[in-house]
Design goal:
This protein folds into 2 domains: 6-327, Aldolase class I (TIM Barrel, Alpha-Beta Barrel), CATH 3.20.20; 330-373. Helices cover 41% and strands 17% of the residues. The protein has 11 helices and 16 strands. The strands form 4 sheets. It has an 8-stranded parallel beta barrel, surrounded by 8 helices. A hairpin with a 2-residue loop joins strand 1 (6-8) and strand 2 (11-13). The chain starts with 5 loop residues before the first strand and ends with a helix. The structure holds flavin mononucleotide (FMN). Flavin mononucleotide (FMN) is lined by residues 20-23, 45-46, 75, 77, 79, 81, 108, 136, 139, 177, 204-205, 233-234, 237, 264-267, 286-289.
Length: 373
């Protein structure tokens, strides 16, 4: 019997599906709903010490739909981290853990470039009873203007220093969440792992402009006639997320064996999740997918992933984690293999042609001999 149960960095998960930080984990009511529906873990909406500095605008979403207009393929948001007070959050973390002591609750945290602030936020969340941390170094809009989020994630030196501060006080597993808006995601990932983080989460949203309204000539989402580039998520980002997860998994395999990887980006089905596990993921986060399909969607995700495992006789996630990483190579190597293969095929064809020609000659010779007799 195949099982989805898994233990990652000491956290015991009933399945590898984790609510990604964002609207689906925006308060204790929805977090408890997620536990009730059976999600393996929940990462709450990112919190900071001083929520009064976080001011959201509206509208903050824009969607790319399929040509029949029925399906959301891509989703842009200019939403900031949580604008709810830190004290409220601490009470809610406690309330969630009181009601669901076995529910794995991960606090997503973000602070300015200030050691005391990072240490304080870690210690106070820890005291509230959360099970692990995700460090948000990746929000691509709004926060970078305050040198937070992606502004840190784009700078491996700063990221390593901040992760070092966190690791100095954290008594729980720590995952560092990467921005995809960099040329080489391995560089900030390596910095976080060098600083001692137990795992990497990737990817956050991709910097984007959803479109321009051809009637008003204003870019979208339009706030008072203007916009700012936002973060792109949903199904459209999956191929980019798969590539980046693969690159981080190769790094972990080579230089940081044993560290964990939480994959995020466009997951909507159990089959999507299977692909991320095949490329080295330990857990699979879903954010926009929950906004599209609801909390009960975890049941379909579980069924799809289990059906894949049973079709291949895999009993545990470990049986196929990273299996497909072996099939990446350089383009030059693809050319060498293709050329060798073509040469072998051409040689085989020539051999068959020679055989046929010989058989033909033999036939003519025999007929000539017969007609002479
Ligand atoms: C509306 C919205 C708000 C988000 N807010 C946060 C956040 O507060 N912290 C964070 O780390 N990621 C945030 N994210 C990013 C998601 O956690 C995730 O990394 C990204 O959306 C890609 O995954 P998906 O395609 O499953 O949504 C947000 C995403 C969306 C769509």
């Amino acid at each position: 019997m195949a099982t989805l149960e898994t233990t990652v960095d000491g956290l015991k998960l009933a399945n590898p599906f984790v609510i990604g930080s964002g609207p689906p984990g925006t308060n204790s009511r929805v977090i408890r709903r997620a536990f009730k529906e059976g999600w393996g873990a929940v990462i709450a909406k990112t919190v900071s010490l001083d929520a009064s500095k976080v001011i959201n605008v509206s509208p903050r979403y824009a969607k790319l739909k399929s040509s029949d207009g029925k399906e959301v393929i891509g989703w842009e948001n200019i939403e900031l981290i949580s604008d709810r007070s830190f004290d409220t959050w601490l009470d809610e973390f406690k309330a969630c853990k009181d009601e669901y002591p076995d529910g794995v609750l991960i606090a997503s945290i973000m602070e300015e470039y200030n050691k005391d602030a990072w240490c304080e936020i870690v210690e106070r969340c820890q005291d509230a009873g959360v099970d692990a941390f995700e460090l948000n170094f990746s929000c691509p809009h709004g926060l970078p203007e305050r040198k937070m989020g992606a502004a840190m994630g784009e700078n491996p030196g700063i990221l390593e220093e901040v992760c070092g501060w966190v690791m100095g006080v954290a008594k729980l597993p720590v995952w560092a969440k990467m921005t995809p808006n960099v040329a080489h995601i391995e560089d900030p990932s390596a910095a976080a792992l060098r600083a001692g983080c137990q795992g990497i989460s990737a990817i956050n949203t991709i910097r984007s402009v959803m479109g321009v309204d051809l009637e008003t000539l204003r870019p979208e989402p339009t706030v008072e006639g203007y916009t700012t580039p936002g973060g792109y998520s949903s199904r459209a980002v999956k191929p980019i997320a798969l590539r980046m997860v693969m690159e981080i998994a190769q790094l972990i395999r080579k230089e940081f064996p044993g560290r964990s990887l939480s994959a995020i980006g466009g997951v909507e089905t159990g089959e999507d999740a299977a692909q991320f596990v095949l490329l080295g993921a330990d857990t699979i986060q879903v954010c926009t997918g929950v906004m599209k399909f609801g909390y009960g969607h975890v049941k379909k995700l579980n069924e799809g992933l289990l059906a894949f495992m049973e079709s291949k006789d895999f009993e545990t996630l470990a049986d196929f984690k990273g299996h497909s990483l072996d099939y990446f190579t350089t383009h030059a190597e693809l050319v060498r293999m293709r050329t060798e293969r073509k040469a072998a095929e051409d040689a085989a064809k020539e051999a068959v042609a020679d055989d046929n020609a010989w058989e033909g000659d033999e036939f003519v010779a025999q007929s000539n001999a017969l007609s002479r007799d």
